[in-house]
Write a structure and sequence with these properties.
The chain is mainly beta. The chain has 3 helices and 36 strands.
Length: 708
């Protein structure tokens, strides 16, 4: 059946190519092509009859933009004939209260990509099932290690205050997304929704829901995510307030990977009929559970004055003075957040087996050490109560004030609880951290923009930790097109996390003193609109880098490790034919410490056009590929990725054949995932050692935007 569907879609692609000249096609305006993803909510800078400040008072509309958002500010791609009512989107800097303009997440172009773990990076490692742990194979895409280190493996699915999208909308707005693949036994579902409305011009309240229920195509690999977020903001001339509550829980069954790669690479050698669920795995009835509950409140009070505007009274011919817009001069902000997180690793795979004459539980045979008896039940709980106060001098309140300046003070009280080494209860640990920092930035104008940020640990466990980061951007016009050039640099001295120095569980334990990690980075980026090209390069030096070694134990590399990254984003367009490419070159001075693929490529070949003025269609084939290297392995008992030197993975494309459509406020797609497995032999579609991606399958999804 799958082979027939695959052949049918190929026939459809050929048919589309042959009859295309007969269709009524509206070619996109090349002047509006941009490297930014298109969105249902992207609008030109001015819409006739609607001013930029239609939704908010002039003093509240934040005209300062982040450096990244200014890269193509004068280029807006529109492929919706009925743009939705004006909506403002922004994210919040929790430390300063600054609102950073952001794009809506209602992408049209490559909408089908949003359902895949592969879509989070040019090269991504994952366990196959939707919602499973992930790691980017592009080192520069990885963020700093979180204080609660178990969050790192789920970074795309967690909801943090600085990543929350806040809105201000003219009318009530709803967005409903639903994705589906597989039959009843292997079904993967994801439903996410956003409901938001304004109560007047100043107050907005919204709800985000994200639910994943994936049974998985391999045995004991199901995932379940429940994420609920309630958010709101109040904006006036003097007062800006934001609130955010997130309740999230992730449950993921663990199987430890398959036991025999031949089931994937050479199924004929098995000499029996089987489906993916029949492939033997290391263990069953084992799962990881991760909880994240976050509560956030931020308030900012603006100090300033009202402009005085002179106007002529046509009746008396006298000049009168009228109070104009409010001009903020300085701001005092305060934010408070409470985070409660937990992780539990539990196994009921307790059937007794005999290994080398020793009787043990089935799951125990895969681990050399056992530090307590009985079934596996490891848990860690972490809480953080953080308060921040900041004072800001606003940019541009006078023509001669060319930059903004912010100073902040942060206090973080942290609590840990984990199983103690005696095995009779739980050990408690409390620590605090005080951080002093500042920001100097210029984000108005066109010729030169910069953002310099620094913070220093002055008291507590982060004493001596510091970060000095900066980015600068400039641009110039060539024949009316904006070419941008930017640079970024940072120097960091990072203290090790408590859980990196102290941990106890059934299979792993450590108690060690680690040194500070020092990181120095310098990079730049050039965007050329004439050729739709973006070139970026960066080099980083790391000392005392902390990682998990081949024994799955924490290790620290005392020597310096250098990492070079060069990236090219090249989009080629010829009428309805499009070819988008993302190429990343990486070179690590120590593959044993920081293993990376030398070359990673994402290529997307497709046809795209607006048909009969109502339907946008994108039909094509894409693939993720990287050179072979020792991809990090995944350890379920730690919920961490570790360096291994037993199996190389790569030189195999993870490809899809897809059709993506947009009709007014509705988007939908159909897709065949892992299509190359029907053409290439041997089939080596592994993402991580012992973890193949999903087999060839059909996926579909729909998204509806409602404005009423």
């Amino acid at each position: 059946m799958k082979e027939k569907l695959f052949i049918s879609l190929l026939v459809c692609l050929v048919h589309v190519a042959t009859v295309w000249p007969q269709a009524r096609v509206i070619l996109p305006d090349s002047s509006k092509i941009t490297t930014n993803p298109d969105s249902l909510n992207l609008l030109p800078r001015q819409v006739e009859g609607i001013s930029d400040s239609a939704m908010l008072p002039d003093s509240v509309v934040d005209r300062s933009l982040s450096l990244d958002s200014l890269a193509h500010d004068d280029e807006v791609e529109m492929d919706s004939l009925q743009p939705p009512p004006r909506m403002f989107h922004w994210k919040l800097n929790p430390r300063t209260g600054d609102r950073i303009p952001a794009e809506s997440d209602t992408v049209i172009h490559n909408f089908q990509h949003s359902t895949l773990a592969d879509g989070y990076s040019v090269a991504m490692g994952h366990l196959g099932t939707m919602g499973s742990p992930v790691i980017s194979k592009i080192f520069s895409d990885r963020g700093e290690t979180e204080t609660f280190i178990f969050n790192n493996a789920y970074f795309p699915f967690l909801r943090k205050p600085d990543e929350q999208l806040f809105l201000n909308t003219r009318v009530p707005y709803s967005r409903l997304n639903y994705y589906r693949s597989g039959n009843n036994q292997t079904r993967e579902d994801r439903f996410n929704a956003r409901l938001t409305t304004n109560f007047g011009k100043s107050l907005n309240v919204g709800l985000d829901v994200d639910l994943i229920n994936a049974r998985g195509h391999y045995n004991s690999q199901a995932t379940r995510h429940n994420n609920f977020s309630l958010f709101g903001n109040y904006l006036s001339e003097r007062i800006e307030a934001h609130a955010y509550v997130n309740l999230g829980k992730i449950s993921h069954f663990e199987n430890g990977g398959i036991t025999n790669d031949l089931f994937i690479t050479d199924p004929d050698a098995i000499r029996q009929q089987f489906n993916p669920r029949d492939i033997p795995v290391k263990f069953t009835n084992t799962w990881n559970t991760l909880g994240n509950n976050r509560f956030f409140l931020s308030g900012r009070y603006n100090l300033g004055y009202y402009e005085v505007v002179k106007s002529d009274d046509t009746v008396s011919d006298d000049t009168v003075k009228v109070r104009g817009d409010f001009v903020p001069v300085a701001s005092l902000s305060f934010s408070s957040s409470y985070t409660d997180q937990f992780r539990r690793f539990l196994s009921h795979d307790t059937t007794l087996v005999n290994v080398g004459g020793v009787s043990m539980q089935r799951i125990d045979q895969f681990y050399p050490n056992r530090y307590y008896m009985g079934a596996v039940d490891d848990s860690v709980r972490f809480s953080s109560f953080k308060n921040i106060v900041a004072l800001s001098l606003r940019e541009g309140f006078k023509k001669w004030v060319k930059f903004g300046l912010t100073a902040f003070l942060e206090y973080d009280l942290r609590n840990y609880s984990m199983r103690d080494t005696v095995g009779t209860g739980y050990a408690q640990h409390r620590e605090s951290a005080v951080t002093l920092g500042g920001i100097l930035n210029k984000q108005q104008g066109e010729n030169l923009l910069f953002n310099i940020r620094a913070d220093l640990g002055v008291l507590g466990v982060n004493l001596g930790e510091f970060r000095l980061m900066g980015d600068v951007q400039t641009g110039f016009n060539i024949a009316g097109r904006r070419t941008t050039l930017s640079a970024e640099a940072y120097v960091k001295n990072l203290r090790p996390k408590y859980l990196q120095e102290n941990y106890f569980s059934k299979y792993f334990k450590w108690n060690q003193k680690l040194g500070d990690t020092r990181r120095v980075y310098l990079g730049g980026k050039l965007h050329i609109p004439f050729t739709n090209s973006t070139v970026s390069a960066g080099v980083e030096n790391l000392q005392n880098y902390i990682y998990f070694n081949r024994d799955r134990m924490l290790s620290q590399e005392g020597d310096n490790v250098q990492l070079l990254t060069v990236r090219l984003d090249q989009d080629i367009r010829l009428g309805v034919f499009n070819w988008d490419n993302r190429v990343v070159y990486q070179a690590s001075s120590s593959q044993e410490v920081i293993p990376v693929p030398t070359l990673s490529v994402y290529s997307n070949l497709y046809l795209q056009a607006l048909i009969v003025k109502v339907l946008t269609m994108q039909v094509g084939v894409d693939a993720h590929w990287h050179t072979k290297y020792y991809v990090p392995g995944y350890e379920p008992a730690l919920l961490q990725f570790y360096n291994q030197d037993e199996k190389e993975i790569g030189n195999y494309p993870i490809s899809t054949i897809y059709a993506n459509f947009h009709l007014q406020q509705t988007r939908f797609f159909v897709m065949f995932y892992n299509a190359a497995s029907k053409l290439l032999k041997p089939t080596e579609y592994f993402s991580l050692p012992n973890y193949p991606v999903n087999p060839f399958l059909f996926k579909m999804g729909v998204s509806v935007n409602l404005n009423n």
